[in-house]
C-alpha cells in the first residue's frame, strides 16, 4: 500500500557493520540492520507498536549520525531513524555496542527468576534466546537479594501475570493502549518494584487480550488454559485460518500428539497483521468435547439412532433422499439443502454440486439466520466474485480510506480484524468512521466513530441521507444484519453507485462468503453464475457432464423451512445449522420434524442430529484441508493440521451419498472425492464472466409496521457469547460481557435497573443500563448471551418488545 | 570580600514580609513588564540571548536560544513551563527563592511568556513543599488582583494565565519530559526525544521549560540590560547564581554570587569549614555531579571550570563534607535515593540502581573483595550513557568519582571488616567528640 513508485526514490543510504544498504526514509536502525542480516537483540521493540526505547537492549554504536559527528554514547537502535550517510556499528563489529548489550542483558537477568524449566515460555523465549546470544554465561550478582513477588496473579480470567518474570518492556500495556484500546493494564509503582497492574475492580477485559501473551518477550504473561500444558519444542505448528468469523485471520495451530494445545496469531500483513481475537485464539475446545460425533448413525426401525458403517449410512441416506424426491412416494417432492455458514469453500462446492446434479434442485441456502429476498439479490449482484484482485475492498483499503461507513455491522463484536484495522487507521489520523447504528457502542467509541443515530429498520433512510458525507474516498461496510432491514442493502448499493464509494458486505461466519462463491444460494451456481442465465447453466452443465440443470431459482432457507412444514418438500440435507440461529427457530424445528427424511452432517450432537434419520460425522477444520473466503473475497487456503483417518471432509461424504443415489438411478455421481479434486475442478470452472443477475425487481417497500406498543429491538451477537463454538473453554467464557439491556434514559428511569422484556416469542428478565446516546424508542440486548438467544426466547426480527420493571 | 556577592534574586529576602506584593513593588517589582511590553517579542528573546543567561537547572543550555527554538509558525498554542520540582539531594535554591521572593518568579514568567508568545504558563512545584506551593499560589493571586496577570496586562493587550501545579513527589519529574507527562496527568516517565518539547511538548504544543532561577533572572536582564548581566560571571558563564552551601560549614545558606567564584571564596564568606575540621570532599551541584575534593578549592565555579575538573556545575548545590564523613556511607545513602527514585522505565537505571545498592551495602559492611570495586565501576559503566534519561547517569556519578578519589577508603572498609568511621562524629552533636577512632 505504502510503496508507491515515488516513495521508492526516497531511499536513505546507511552503512551498518561496514555493509552499505539503502532503506526507505524513516526506517529505524534496528530494522535497517535486519536488511544486512544483523539481528540486534531487543525486547520492547515491536514492529506494530510505537517505539518506546525502554529496555535499552538494542544499543548500537553510531560513529557518524550522517552529519559527520557521532553519538558519544550508544544509541537505542529501535528509536533511531536512519539518516543519509549514517554509520552504525552493532554488536557484530563494535565492542562498545557489544558490551552495552551484555550489560543491559545482565541487568535484565538480575531480578529474573531462574524458573525457565517450568516456564511456559522456556524454549521460545526471547529473553532466554538472547541471553544465550548476547549475554554472559555467569552471573556477577551472586549472593545478592532478588526482588520477588507472589507467583501469578490473574489480570483476567484468561491472562495471568508473573511479575517476577516481567522485564517491564511495556509491550502489553502498549498493545492494550495502542492496538486494542482497552487500557485495563498499566504500569504501577516505580524502580525495580515497577510492575504491570490492574485496578482492583477492573480486570483486563478485552476481546484481544490474548495477544499480550503472545507478544510478551518473557514468560510473564501466560494463558490460563495453556499454562504448564506443553513445551514449545514438543509442539508441531501448522498454519491455519481462523474459523470464527469472516475475517480470514491467519493463525497457527500448535498441536502435540494429535491434540491441539493452543492457537497463536499468524503473521499476515495484508489481513490480520499479527493480531487475533480471543475467540480465534482460545475457542478450539469445541471440537474435542464429549458430544463430538465419531461414527455414522442411522435411525433404526425402532426409531432409535444406532451406529452404522459408512457404506450403510451412505446407502440409507441415498434411499431416504431418493424417496423424498419422489412425489409418488408420498410426502413432498424434493429435498432442500441447508448448509450453514461454517463450510470450507470446497465442501460448500460439494453441497452445491450435489444439490444440482444429484438432488436436481436449486433449493439450497447457506444462510442459517434471518434473511430476505432483497439480500439474495444483493449477494448475486454486488457481492459474489468481488475480490482483492478485481477491485474488491481490502483491509488495506480500510486503512487508506478517508471515511468508512459502518451499517448494520458492529466490527468489534462481529469482525475483530476489521475493527483492529479501522482503529489503527483512526489513531494514525487517516480514517473517519461513520456508524449508522442505534448507539455508540464501546467498540465504536474506541474508533471515535461519528454516530448516525438510527432505529433498526430505518437504515435505508439513514443511508439515503448520508449523501454529502460519502464520496469516492469512502468505503461502505454493510453487515449481514441488514438483511432484516427493508431496503437497506439496496440503499447502500444505490449510495455507492451514486457517490463512487466502494461497498463491501461483511458476514459473520467463516464459510458465508465461500458458500456464495460455491453457489450455495437458490439463485447462484458456482463461480457466481446466475441460475436464471441459460448460458451460465450450460456452462456448468457442460463442466459437470450433465444434460441440464434446473432452470428456476430455488427456495431460500426460509422458503425451504416453510416448504418442509407445508409438505411441499420431502427431505432435508442439513449441515451445521443451529435452529436457534434461524429466522424462526420454532418453525425450523417444526420443519425438521415434519420432513419425511433428514440427513444431518455435523461435528457434534445437536438437536438437529438427534432428530435426523441419518447422522454423518464431519471433520473439524483441524482435520482437513480447506479454504475460507473472507469478507474481502480473499482466498484463504489451509492444510490439515492433524491426521485423523476417521475424520472425513464433507466432499467425501457427499460423494458417497451421490454415488449411492446414482446407483438408485437418481442423478449423477459427484465426480469428486477429495479436497484436491474439488480445488482443481473449481479452478477449471473459473468465475462467471457474463452478465450479473439482472437485478430482479425485489420489493423493498417497507411494510407498514403494525403500530404496536413497545420499543424497537436492536440486537447482535457479541464476540464472546453462548455460541456453540466457544464451548469447552470456561476461561474464555468468563471474559464475556455481562448481558444487559440498554435502555433510553426515560425508559430506564421508569423501569429501573432490572427489566423484563416481552416480545412475540417470549419474555426475558435482564439487568438494565442506560444507553447514553441510544436512539429513542429502541432497546438493545445481546443476541446470544442469555437463554437460547433472542430469536428463540424474545422476539422475531424487526418486531417490537415491551419493557417493564422486572423483579429485581 | 562582601563585594563578591551580587544579591539580585536574594536581594530582598531580608525585607519584612518580602513575599508580599507591596514589599516587592516597593523594591521596584514588576517594572520590567512595561519595558518588555514596549519591546518586540523577538527583541526580548535577543536581550536574553545577549545576556548570556544559561539554564540554571543544571544543564546550562542558553536560555535565549531555547526560546528561539519555539516555531512561531506553529498554529498550536505555546506554553511556558517552570520546572520548580527541586528534588536533587543537596539542591536548595529554588525553594528558598520561591519562599523569599515568589514575585520575582511570577514577573519572570510574565516576561518570558510574552517573549515566546505563550498565553498560558505552568509552574510545576515539587509536591512535598506545600508551604512553597501556597506561597507561590498567593503571589499569583496577588499578581492577578494587581493586574499583572490575566487579560490585557498593563494595557498592553497581552493576556497570560498562570497555573501553579503541585507535583506528586517523584524525583524523575524534574526531568523535563517526565514533568510534562506528570503535568498532563500521566505517569511521570521521560518521553522519547525527538520530538523535543520546543516542537511538541505540553499537549503536543511548542513548550519552553525553564528552571525557576533562570526565569527569575529574566526581569533583571530586561530592567538592567543584557550588558549589565553579562558584565558578571566568566566569559562563557555569564551572570550571577545562587550558591547553596550546606553541610560542614560554619554558616550554611544561599550565597548569590557571579559564576566563576571558587569554593575557597565561598567558604571564606561562609566562615569556613566547621571548627577544627578539614574539607574532605564536596559536590559542586548536587549528588548527581561527581565529587570534588580539597584540591579543587580554586576551581572556578562556572560551567567550563567545573567541567574541566571532571564534574558538572549542576545546580551549585555545594554539599561540604569534612574528614569525619565516611565517603562510602555517603555514597550508599545517595545511591539508595536513586534506587528509590528510579522511575523504572529503562533497564539500566531500574535494575542497575537495585544492584549498586546491594554491592555498596556489602562494601560498607566490609564484605567482599577489591574486585567488587571493579565490579562497581563496571556496573556504572553499563549504566552511564545507557539509560533512557540522565537519572541513571547521575546515579553513577558519586560512585565512580568517590572510587576515583577515595579508593583506599573503600579498601579500608574491607581490611577493617566494616566502616572505620564513627558516624556520630560527623553530626553536629558529635563534632565536639574527642573519641579516637580505633582503626
Automatic annotation (TrEMBL), chain A:
Belongs to the complex I 75 kDa subunit family. One of its GO terms (molecular function) is 2 iron, 2 sulfur cluster binding. Keywords: 2Fe-2S, 4Fe-4S, Iron, Iron-sulfur, Metal-binding, NAD, Oxidoreductase, Quinone, Translocase. CDD domains: fer2. Its cofactor is [2Fe-2S] cluster; [4Fe-4S] cluster. This is NADH-quinone oxidoreductase. The keyword Membrane does not apply. The keyword Phosphoprotein does not apply. It catalyses: a quinone + NADH + 5 H(+)(in) = a quinol + NAD(+) + 4 H(+)(out). It comes from the Bacteria. It comes from Nocardioides immobilis.
Automatic annotation (TrEMBL), chain B:
Gene3D superfamilies: 3.10.20.600, 6.10.250.1450, NADH-ubiquinone oxidoreductase 51kDa subunit, NADH-ubiquinone oxidoreductase 51kDa subunit, iron-sulphur binding domain. Keywords: 4Fe-4S, Flavoprotein, FMN, Iron, Iron-sulfur, Metal-binding, NAD, Oxidoreductase, Quinone, Translocase. Its cofactor is [4Fe-4S] cluster; FMN. Coiled coil: none annotated. The keyword Flavoprotein applies. It catalyses: a quinone + NADH + 5 H(+)(in) = a quinol + NAD(+) + 4 H(+)(out). Its EC number is 7.1.1.-. Residues 328-373 form the NADH-ubiquinone oxidoreductase 51kDa subunit iron-sulphur binding domain. One of its GO terms (molecular function) is FMN binding. One of its GO terms (biological process) is cellular respiration. Pfam families: Complex1_51K, NADH_4Fe-4S, SLBB. NDH-1 shuttles electrons from NADH, via FMN and iron-sulfur (Fe-S) centers, to quinones in the respiratory chain. PANTHER family: NADH DEHYDROGENASE [UBIQUINONE] FLAVOPROTEIN 1, MITOCHONDRIAL, NADH-UBIQUINONE OXIDOREDUCTASE FLAVOPROTEIN 1 NDUFV1. Belongs to the complex I 51 kDa subunit family. This is NADH-quinone oxidoreductase subunit F. It comes from Nocardioides immobilis. The gene is nuoF.
